[in-house]
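Reopening this one. Same input as before:
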Amino acid sequence: MALIATAIVSALVGRERLPPLPAPTAMHAAPLGVDPFAYDPARAADYVERATAGNAQVLYLNSPGGVIATAARVAAYRPLIDAATAGSGIDPNILEAIVFLESAGRPNVIAGADVADAAGLTQILAHTGQALLGMHIDLARSRRLTEQIEVAYAQGRTGAAARLDHERSLVDDRFVPRLALAATVRYLELAERHFGRSDLAVESYHMGIGNLQSVLDEYDGGVAVPYVQLYFDIAPDRHAAAYELLSGFTDDSWLYYWRVLAAAQIMDAYRTQPGALARLASLETATDTIADVLHPPGSTQSFANPSRLAAAYVDHVIVRLPSNPGALGLAYDPGMGAFAGRVGAPVALYRGLRPAALELLIALAARVQALSAVRAPLIVVSTVSDRRYQQRLGISDPEATTGYTFQIARLYATEAQARALQAMLDRLQALNLIAWAREPDTIEITVASDASTVIEDGTRPAVACSTRCARTRARS
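Same output, byte for byte:
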């Protein structure tokens, strides 16, 4: 019966009369040396907003009990947070976000296997607490009590564990929320005095004042600049030493400031827009990428069959892949669309993208060539498809049926080319322009619908700093 049904579908598809597809045209990348994703002071505020959104997913995926449960735990400490920041000049919303990011509102959590590691509500290292923040930490006694607490919990003696918790709080200030918050305020005040900027003070909370200063030294001789400038104005081919140092720190240190801002947004939404937060949380946690956040299900046209996809070409919703891939640093896998005959369609139907996705693909390839100094192309393995085509192949990739997704083969001419691609994936995700996933043989990339605007803005000739630019710098 299944074979009969398949034959009927094939016959029906075969009788479809698809309109002729537009001919592919030659396209051009930005002029050599032009980076459409480079830092521009006039776009600083937009870059902060994009970096905050582009780095938020880890909070949704890793928050114990989910982001809403974590927000509820953190919110319970708001009176202590307000008290700790009163008269200090430290933004209580930022301190609250640090609590969210560091401990998820769990005052007894320890980051590593030893209590000497980061511990408590704001995850302070024992050495930092003792040497820099004036905290009372009897590490030997705290370590012994921590071992006893673990044994008590393992044996189900919760009452004994609670008594031991209290005893540990008497010898280790990090486990007293009020004292941990006060110490964090002292750190931020110290860092802000050092850098003269609150954003750099926040970033240094995870990276360390000395480490961040070393990056600034490499960037411009040590002068403090807005973190958005430091982050986006470096690349493997621009301020390379600063880039290598900043990107080389462990634990995603260079993303810390953006994640703090994302946590602050979550806490604000928890109080003011709980429904919107719940909807966003469902999108952020739907997959391991932010593809559903960039294109929420049902919000973007999806192509059901070859006829609908062909009509999208006629309407210029989808455009053919360029006729000059070699000049763009691209190559097309010959197997792309090879099974089009199974749905009665030409191979060319499955070699196209939304204009925004195509523009980003071209810009990506150009930047990879510039960063790696390798002329070998990136190999495009797949682009747009439709649901009927996917059904015949026995696959399901909803994003590919919107035309915003393409796949690149994980075949690199050199290690430099592979590193350059990774650097660009990091940058584009930080700009909230892509969601990407590493598959066994390919990198799948889904492009934001507003990518064309960012690329267009980034390729305009630089102009002198206007009044708007000056205002942006003042806010940064």
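So the earlier flakiness isn't reproducible anymore. For the record, Residues 21-37+291-459 form one domain.
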